[in-house]
Amino acid sequence: MLVSNGLFFLGLALPGALGAPSTSSFNWKISKGNGVNLGGWLIQEAVIDPTWWSQHSGGALDEWGLCAHLGTQCGPVLEQRYATYITPSTIDKLAAAGVNVLRIPTTYAAWVKVPGTQLYTGNQKQFLKNIATYAINKYNMHIIVDVHSLPGGVNGMGFGEAEGHFGWFNNQTALTYSYKAIDAVIAFVQSSGFPQSFTIEPINEPVDNPNMMYFGTPAALSDAGAAWTLEYIKGVIQRVVATNPNIPVMFQGSFRGEAYWSPQFPANTNLVFDVHNYYFAGRPTDSDTVSANICSDAKASAGDGKFPVWIGEWSIQTASNNKLANRRKNLNTGLYAFNKYTQGSAYWTARFYGNVPVEGEGVQGDYWNYESFIDLRLTSHSNKASFELKPYIQRKLVTMSKYETVLEGYEPLKVLVAGGGIGGLSAAIFLRRAGHQVEIFESSRFASEAGAAIHIPSNVNGLLRRMGMIPEDHGANQTEWVSEYRPNGEMVFQKDVRPLSSVFPYPWQLIHRVDLHNALKSIAVSPEGIGHPVVLNLRSKVVSINIDTPSLTLEDGFTYTGDLLIGADGVHSKLRSSIAKDCPLPTPSGSSAFRFLIPADVIRADPKTAHFLERKGEMRLLYGTDRRIVIYPCRNNTLINFVALHPDEETEADGDNWDQAASKDSMLSCFSSYPEDVRLLLAKASAETIKLWKLLDHEELGKDNWVRGKACLLGDAAHAFLPHQGQGGAQAIEDGAALGALFPLGTQASDVPRRLQLYVQARYDRATLVQDFTRQAAFKTTHGKHGGKVIDPMQFTEINFRHDAYDHARGILLRELARNATYRRAAFSFGPSPGPRQDHMGRLRNLGEHSYKTSYLTFKTHKSYISTLLPSEELSIDTNGSWATATLAVTRLANLSWLGGRGYSFFALYIHNVTSDNKTATGALTDNELATGGAKKGDFIPVMFENKADPIITGREELGFSKVFATLEDTSTASSYSLSAGWEGTEFCTLTLEGLVEVPSAEPTTQAPSLHWNAITSSKESGHNYRGTVTVYPPFPTSEGQREWKAGVAKVNFTDLGGQQLVQAFPTLSHIIEGLRGIQIVEVLKSGVLASRDM
């Protein structure tokens, strides 16, 4: 069988879902698996880890001799080995690569202490239990418990007991102790809590022929040895059936196949055969042709079909001519063929560090270490167990969205998140979408999430939608009115806030907190969507962290190591003290809050309270001097949320519990001074649903205390919020979004500390500003530090709502990457270059007479995104609200004297209303004078495509214009214009104007001064310390008699190519194309053509 380039989907019918152990019996006849062995862990072999072996063995050949050499130290040495060689991180890595079966070899001494043996009996069962339980609970893996050795020696090999030991055969004492070991295995499996997740394999490679030249062939086991083995297996089956007939028995029948043994067993026996296929000895194999051997072995291994067959061990080392380049082909041939013809396979082994040279290229570890295959991406299968058989390594594209793609060739970071609340889940989702592997550790079990309603203001609504969460699909309703009343019922104001939807890009909505949390949890762990599903560990309390490794340790003692550690464990964060030094604890703010929900129908049914719901989507504020009630709807206006704030001395709230049960009488007493209708409204709350929340405040941690090493804080762990602006949850989501933007795929572990400094830059000032707004908006209490400063509760809406945390952080990252790029230089060695502004002597010259035609489209777009194209913090868009305007325009020039009467075209983006401060703005030469003044304002040009090299070179070198080459082909008719922009014959953009009608000429859209960013020194030569300046250049000159046409329809389209296809098509322009097509044209403001009289 030859390996093809096709994509094969292999149905691995392991019962149950990922992370949920199956409760049904395991049936090998209908199940398929992709497995590995955990060799070298609970049984030792000299070749697997020679470095460890040489440290402890004293030259011994096997574990028997190793323990004899170590004496009383054998136990401590092996216990350390058990604790460190295979860990939960190992299982995580295997699971991420699609492994769903673990075959775990053990010595018989793990189960029974046999007189006279040198093998160690200790805590092997506990270590096995820990790893098996983890693999089953988290990944629904199936576990094969393999009793790899038997008393007396089962095959004369070190892993059978000891070198030269064949004493198990025809030895009644050895048989008795073997059954004792099996009884212990059965008891272990039966008491595990999920016996359906185990298979018992009571023997491995029984061989009684001392001539090792026959090892691996049927002649290795004599007929007498086969009869003894058969008696043993039948006895094992009887014992298993007597305890639990649903536990399968796996029989490794030496090197005699299933067809030899199957007649000895009834067809209804719960039995699966284990066949081992190796290619490094015993037959003439080489890596160029071994795939054919693998396929023929796979077909032959299936036997007569009476019983299922599993390939329990195999590897890709060959007898000769081993080639590293052939590993992918041979590995995936085996994975495919064994799965097709048998029930699957378990590679030998998960970790293998053998350094003995092989025939051909490399050492043993290059061909036996499955972990290294994963690291090198030689395995083509995924969690869904699809195998792509290709002879060469190929980069695959993982689609992120229409225009967002990541290359699988980049190594994802492993991110550990402590805390599974709204902030932790948001960070996990954004980092998942970036392409990383994310694991959450949540101390609770999410059985009954607490909380009432929560705001989704515009600043975070867009972030949720970016994640794929549409709030209205989860019961969110829009905030339509905000009104304030005094305690006596007098109205202070009433505002229709629906028009805010036209000011800000996304709506202000209200949602039940549980609905939001459930939606985020679903997106995080779903197998659908962008990136790897987040692993969610419940009942996983973090007790300590290491900020440098980084790692976290759980209450059960397990330690998890990653590349980035995020502390999202709330206001009472246990991680904060490890990251923030000398940090004060949260303190009472002086107020507490009752929280509860009342069905809207209950309120409407009472004529005395129905008026509270006269307006749909109303947030009503009942403000007193020292207490207030906030009322607003959620769940599509069917539930009304209440937050009743009051001085904390009037109730006894526990600061450590935000979901404390509260007394209804106490709540009514706190608001007894309010009007009757309000008291009637409050009285409709169900007593058992009222919760009491003591509001805690936390002083700013300081910029130095948000991050440390490779760890950071997020949400309330970094900036605890009072509820007075409805921004606490929003700011936690903003934190998560910023992390997602700052850690795109391709970020290396060594980049993490610096990226976390950018996280502080992106988030600290913003979060603490909103935190301060929240404090100002509080009411004054007798012992609170803050409050009583804000009259209008919507005073800070503009600042709160207009921010896009993802785009803001992305802009910071882009500028950081630009500052640290390897090269910014040109060829300065040949003196002045002649061009449009100077002759070959460097003297000024004027542009002179010329002809032009400009076709343009001016549009409205999101300020947050287009601001990311501004390469410096010293540039900003000077418009109100969240909108910006920009123009895409193509200009064709002709009759240029500096080009000998020739011409060229340029296609550019103009971002309007951009200002630069006077620290960086420098004037360009304009009519022999320098531009003067302070701050400059004009049209910033991020990129200009031109179709001729000369203007590109001169514009970049003399002015710092961001010019790049493209082919610009246009066609015109009396009523239409079209542009095709491309590179090397492939189109990346079209601009089309239709329905052109000539009109009286007016000032063109792009006649403001143009702003350009120029980096003027080489970062390589100056250690990334270059100086950037903003160059202000005058408008392009126009001519008298200019003509103008307006378009009826204007369209811009960019290529749909993504990822590596985009890079291959446009190797030097792909990043620019991705940036431009991310701009959303919300509304076309105007479009048309401007031309000189002679064009």
* Largest sheet composition: 13 strands, mixed
**How many discrete domains?**
3
Determine the CATH topology of the largest domain: TIM Barrel
Number of alpha- plus pi-helical segments: 28
Architecture per CATH nomenclature, i.e. the level-2 architecture of the largest domain: Alpha-Beta Barrel
Distance between the termini: 67 Å
Structural class comes to: alpha/beta
* Structure summary, number of beta strands: 51
Strand content: 25-35%
Shape: globular
Mean pLDDT: 84
Describe this structure in words.
The chain is an alpha/beta fold and 1095 residues long. The protein has three domains: 33-376, Glycosidases (TIM Barrel), CATH 3.20.20.80; 414-463 and 512-586 and 699-809, 3-Layer(bba) Sandwich (FAD/NAD(P)-binding domain); 851-924 and 934-1018 and 1025-1091, Beta Barrel (Acetoacetate decarboxylase-like), CATH 2.40.400. Helix content is 26%, strand content 25%. The chain contains 28 helices and 51 strands. The strands form eleven sheets. Strands 33, 34, 35, 36, 37, 40, 41, 42, 46, 47, 48, 49 and 51 form a 13-stranded mixed β-sheet that branches. An eight-stranded mixed β-sheet has the order 18-17-26-27-28-25-30-29. It has a six-stranded mixed β-sheet with strand order 20-14-13-24-32-31, with helices on one face. The longest helix is centred in the last third of the chain and has 25 residues, at 752-776. The model is unreliable at 1-20, 381-409, 823-832, 923-933 and 1017-1026 (pLDDT under 50).
